[in-house]
Amino acid sequence: MNPTFSVRATDGAARVGSLTTAHGVIDTPAFMPVGTYGTVKAMTPEELAGLGAQIILGNTFHLLLRPGPEIIAAHGGLHRFMHWPHPLLTDSGGFQVFSLRSLRRISEEGVRFRSPVDGREVRLTPEDSMDVQLALRSDIAMALDDCTPHPATEAEARASMERSMRWAARSHAHYYGAGGAAPPPGGLFGIVQGGMYLPLRLASLEALLRLPWPGLAVGGLAVGESEEERLAVLEGLVPHLPADRPRYLMGVGRPEDIVAAVLRGIDMFDCVMPTRHARNGHLFTSTGVINIRNSANAADLGPVDAACDCYTCRHFSRAYLRHLDRCNEILGARLNTIHNLHFYMELMRALRAAIAAGTLQEWSRSFLGVQNCQR
Amino acid sequence: MNPTFSVRATDGAARVGSLTTAHGVIDTPAFMPVGTYGTVKAMTPEELAGLGAQIILGNTFHLLLRPGPEIIAAHGGLHRFMHWPHPLLTDSGGFQVFSLRSLRRISEEGVRFRSPVDGREVRLTPEDSMDVQLALRSDIAMALDDCTPHPATEAEARASMERSMRWAARSHAHYYGAGGAAPPPGGLFGIVQGGMYLPLRLASLEALLRLPWPGLAVGGLAVGESEEERLAVLEGLVPHLPADRPRYLMGVGRPEDIVAAVLRGIDMFDCVMPTRHARNGHLFTSTGVINIRNSANAADLGPVDAACDCYTCRHFSRAYLRHLDRCNEILGARLNTIHNLHFYMELMRALRAAIAAGTLQEWSRSFLGVQNCQR
Lengths: 375, 375
Fold this sequence. Notes:
The structure is a homodimer. Chain A has helices at about 45-50, 60-65, 70-75, 80, 95-100, 125-135, 155-175, 200-210, 225-235, 255-265, 275-280, 310-315, 320-325, 330-355, 360-375, and strands at about 5-10, 15-20, 25-30, 30, 35, 55-60, 90, 105, 110-115, 120-125, 140, 185-190, 215-220, 245-250, 270, 280-285, 290. Chain A is α/β, with parallel strands linked by helices.
């Protein structure tokens, strides 16, 4: 079924809403932990749900290579394969393929690339991406787009965006038509491209809106642009996005980036930062990021964050976490991941509460003030 | 407090008992998962307890090197450091030090060795080992022994055993005397040595029994001897061990080895096998060990063991576990560890039930028949 969206409250440009899918309802603004290979690294599904995750992201590129869509389809889809009964979003695979650089060839048809796993040639067209995402049976699938490099000239960004719009139309036709009379298991989101050029962004949106997408994403950000460039795109583009549909900012990001984007009307986020940072010993706290590997933590009997009530902070000291990290213990990666995901989930809860209470400006100033002090 | 032991039922030489410590009661025969660096690899304390683990083992050698006893003592001991409120046994550190071979020098005083972590020289005398174990505040500590190499001549085994007995007396005096009037937090077990020579084993036992140990261990097995040699030592020695005290066979072992030793009157076991095997993809099942990495599992939608009701088998397919293993995902190590520890805990439950019911011979024949078929 196509996801449906309703806005429950607004505060300036920010919105609190409900996104309903076949596998459950997602409160927005929402953060989606990334489950690259059919697992959010180090976590069980029950732990993720317990932390408040209502939707997670699966990577089509990675799952296409390992274990392959046939094996996941034989399980009845990604939900059952990974034992995650709640909503799932899959990306198109395009972002990772474009990141391969030397190993890929792009044409109007799509992309061909050498698998970094076993060297075989793999084709990814808009139709291929839809077929994989349909096999995964995700609740939200993403159109395949041509990922604009950064920096790009206006001409480069235009050509890339225009190809993305042709691929978006092919994605839409295949996703909603592949099953014949049978409706797809979820809905397909379109992706606005156009690089850092606002007129191209608006042209991209206009092209997309010829088709009935249940949600729209902003792609091509979090690619190395400055904060000013990113916010300029959001401020110029988001007011033109349909208010009745969810808005997903792909690949963003740091807590302060999420707050800035929510203030400008974004509803959905994904990023590997909380999970990857955790495995590298970087932990988010109410007063900024700490590195648990720092020798100052060696004999610290206190928790990572005295203001945090996550499982890790309730039961384990900084000294213990540093010890686990030094010994490369799996439990260290687990406890750090629990802490960081809890931080992100609490951030989203606080944002939703502040929007509902009409106090988002005040809350954000306070939050960004504390976090920026620590840079 | 010294642990206390009571036998509730016997079946031949096998016994079902209760071992009571300051942190709780352990049903015997018991298997102790190994928590080398203050964590049973990949598991939280709650998961271990949920699997039925009533006692785990901490490694004095590893914790001495990282993070060091001072940091653990500052937390109030190993229980609090690692958030494990249940019984803990610590080994003496001797076994690992003796395994260093080229990096260690042994004298009557004790052992000096180069830390494999940072190269500094470390001393481990019986008194040092007791000081570390007292700092860890384990419920059961182990005397430091001179680990007899295998194979060893009778003269070598005798000299090593006699040194172990002198070290055992020094361990006992220091453990129970170090606190002055204050009693130690747990109790100290003596270790019978003597290699594969039964007369030396009996002489070792006689020497140990001059002191009031709350439990006795059989050391120097699981060192590369044949099954026949090991069983000959157990059959010759165990009938002479005091019936009113727990008997701990150190470092053993495979499920079939545990069954054979329980049949001969052993009460306690530890081994890294279930956890290490799990991380290497070797999984115990009711019909023998399987290797999840085998390509036959690539598209297998069934569980590891249809007869198993562990979390892993209830929710995940062999294909998913193989996929996680291939992608080196932390969740794979977790799910495999849960399964293997569940297998060991169920084995111990079944052994206790069979002893209590007086059906151990029958149960063991059936169990060993199935497991041996798979070799």
